[in-house]
Amino acid sequence: MKELNRELPDLYLVVPCYNEEEIILESAAIMKNKISDLISQCVIGKNSRIMFVNDGSKDNTFNLLSDAARKDPVYILVSLVGNTGHQNALWAGIMTASKADIVITIDADLQQDINAIDDFVKCYKNGADVVYGVRNTREGDGFFKKFTALSYYKFMHLMGSKILENHADYRLISRKVIEALKEYNESNLFLRGLIPSLGFPSDIVYFDTKERTGGETKYTLSKMFKLATDGITSFTIRPLRIISFTGFITMLFSIILAIISIIEWLQGKNVPGYTTLLLVTLFMSGIILLSLGVIGEYLGKIYLETKNRPKYLIDCVISKDMDDPL
Ligand code: UDP
Ligand code: MG
Questions:
Q1: Which residue numbers in the chain have pLDDT < 70?
Q2: Which CATH code for domain 11-235+310-319?
Q3: DSSP H helical segments within 72-209, as ranges?
Q4: Which atom of ligand 1 is closest in space to residue 85's alpha carbon?
Q5: Which residues line ligand 1 (CB under 6 A)?
Q6: Can you give the pTM of this predicted structure?
């Protein structure tokens, strides 16, 4: 394992990119300025790099980035085969950046304030192995995003997950954490939940967010839904407990209902029951289907885990000055 450098760490900025042709060059330039500043101020090591992970973009992102990486040694391009999703792209970058003392993951659209990096590195120098970026405001987001994000955190807490509110995947991790992550082979990846659960000394840096300057969000509703269910099913089995509990309660109710109907039958009363019957049947079928769905969700995850497939495949790595850039 590489010796951990606390004084002058080599920083790798890991940037997942999916169809970002509209903004990627502008972001790349801003990132380069930042890294050059930090190098010249002797905050980070000379071998710091910006590592783009092209997550199977269908637009011109690959060409733009490979040109940049061929011309300028500060950029490295790791291009994946196909679209694997944000979490897997992050993982690919983190696992590939084996020369880094520290990795900071940041989105390609630079909605997250890049100047927070200075504080990230400060916290690292003070001993933190994980530094979480937490957003101050959600001004850059529309109502829908704000609402879904808030409900999501509330629901996650209810489900027993300890994720940090308003922390996305803007964070610093040290080599120690990367080595620890290598031991985790789960294909059901949710870094926001996994990294806090490792228990390394951590710190928080607050930052402001901006609106996307170009292009659309790459997080479609279905990707958001997948992230949300992954977040829950990869960390807690509480939903399964809730199902058992609901089953228990409904069983109690049905026993009571059974006793009442037997008494009424003994008393020779007519059973008016059509509506009750209908409601109970509908209610019960609803619960049963929902429960089956939740169990199926977990079963699906077990299925994927047992296959133990790689989370990503690297198509090519492009870099100017290094024979072996990784
Ligand atoms: N992204 C990715 N693969 C995907 C979807 C998104 O690598 O399948 C990247 C995207 O290029 C961006 C980051 O993940 O750098 C976050 O996406 P986006 O900014 O669209 O999400 P939002 O900020 O709207 O949540
Ligand atoms: Mg964004």
A1: 1-3, 138-140, 270-271, 322-326
A2: 3.90.550.10
A3: 86-96, 116-125, 143-158, 175-182, 191-198
A4: 8
A5: 16-18, 20, 55, 83, 85-86, 89, 107-109, 111, 217-219
A6: 0.85
